[in-house]
Amino acid sequence: MKLKLKYLITIFAIFMLLFTTFSFATDSKDDIMLINEKSEETDIRDSDLYINDKEYDIKNTINGNTFIAVDTLNIDPNENGGIIEGNLFAAANNVNIKSNVSYSDTEKDDLGNPAMSIDKYCTISGNAFISAKKFILEPGSKIYGDLYICANEIELSQGSIIYGNVFLTADKLTLNSEIGGSLYANVNSFDMQYFGFISRDLHLSAKHANLNGYVYRNSYIEAKDLTTDSNFINEKDFNLTDANTFSFSGEIKGNASLNVKNLNLKNKDNSADITCKISGNLSYSSKQSIEIPDGIIAGEINYSNYIHTPIISVVWNYILGLITSLVCVYIIYLIISKFIPKYIDKIPNISAVNLLKFFGIGLGCLIIIPIIIALLFISSIGKILGVIALLSYIILILIAKPLFIISISKYAKDKLPNNINIYLYILAITVILSLINLIPFLGFIISLIVYVIGVGLFVNSLRFKN
């Protein structure tokens, strides 16, 4: 059972490839451009790599994608390798992207620690999709695409760089690296250390969070307990949507909007002055107004009572959404049963390999069909066909999730030794997906995965004759 769960999580991590095509819309005119560096290539493999073993070390250059399902994965640059020119798909207990680092006996960094010298490091030119118990990105290691990761513990070390966006869910995250895009994180414990740097926005949902780094644009945070260090800098706006306690020091150069029960502005440490500054306006909601020392807030100050969304509202919205989804799925199932019953019989076995295949088919359709539609619209004779194709595309997206639920329900009914009605399976799976959708960030990602698989299932069924 644990093995099946591991591979299911792996598939979810792999399916995050959807985001490589549809990225979050952001204004890039203020972005910091990172300098691209690449190691020398030596031993080269000019094809994709597929590994299913207990432990594996990548020590050469892979000119293609890498698919790894092992207990321990090490990507090692010490033989002038550790280079992946394509995407990395990895499922393992431990994933370690290594580097060769030495420390100076004389030079110090900003914190007074021995300065690092990075001799060799690993590079991943594409995106990295990782499901692991523990993931370490060692100093100097570079991921040039996006990082999508589901892990128990994640350590992004000082001097490492992810040039794209980072999407993750974890129990514990230590961030001391540079992120060239935005960070979307759903974690239990978040520790952003001094060298942590986010070039765009921080989107964080956490239980406990400590910020001691640099966010070049905006922060959007929901946390139970949040603390910022005096070295923390947020270049633009800082938004705390809900928190129990927030102890602030550091600098916010834009406006601050805070919804927190207990707010503490910390401008002294052991009677010594420390940085505690908001250059814009402060709008805060708390249990009671606080006395704000002079010089902390440059703009206007607005206070209101703390606002917490009642649990009854959340439950009611969930029930309404669930009922809507169920009605939609049941109607589509009745239509299929009445008019195209053979579709149900075409549903193939649901396995990790088939799910991956359906995802690939669905992703390809979601990429290629809009291109075809655009070409039809700009051609002189294809506008009518373009309209038809666009409407078909919209309908396909709308029915994708119900088709996924119906397919999984049919497969479960055939495989499980009982006489449970398929409508009960549809109910159970719809409820499960609705609950998963409540998880911040991860729920959104899995919902997109489901849509893509649903498209792939439908298109795959068209390959068979009636």
Task: Please render the helix and strand layout as text.
Layout: H1 2-15, E1 44-45, E2 49-58, E3 61-62, E4 66-75, E5 83-84, E6 88-97, E7 99-108, E8 114-121, E9 123-124, E10 128-137, E11 142-143, E12 147-156, E13 161-162, E14 166-175, E15 178-179, E16 183-192, E17 197-198, E18 202-211, E19 214-215, E20 219-228, E21 233-234, E22 238-248, E23 250-252, E24 256-265, E25 268-269, E26 272-273, E27 276-278, E28 282-286, E29 301-305, H2 311-339, H3 342-345, H4 352-378, H5 383-415, H6 422-436, H7 442-461
Parallel strand pairs: 1-3, 2-4, 3-5, 4-6, 5-9, 6-10, 9-11, 10-12, 11-13, 12-14, 13-15, 14-16, 15-17, 16-18, 17-19, 18-20, 19-21, 20-22, 21-23, 22-24, 23-27, 24-28, 28-29
Antiparallel strand pairs: 7-8, 25-26
Helix pairs in contact: 1-4, 2-5, 2-6, 4-5, 4-7, 5-6, 5-7
State the distance separating the first and last CA atoms.
36 Å
Specify Rg, calculated over alpha carbons: 25 Å
Q: What level of helicity do the residues show?
A: 25-40%
Which of globular, elongated, flat, extended, rod-shaped describes the shape?
globular
Structural class: alpha/beta
Number of domains: 3
The largest beta-sheet arranges its strands as: 2-4-6-10-12-14-16-18-20-22-24-28-29
Percent in strands: 35-45%
Please outline the major beta sheet: 13 strands, parallel
Number of strands: 29
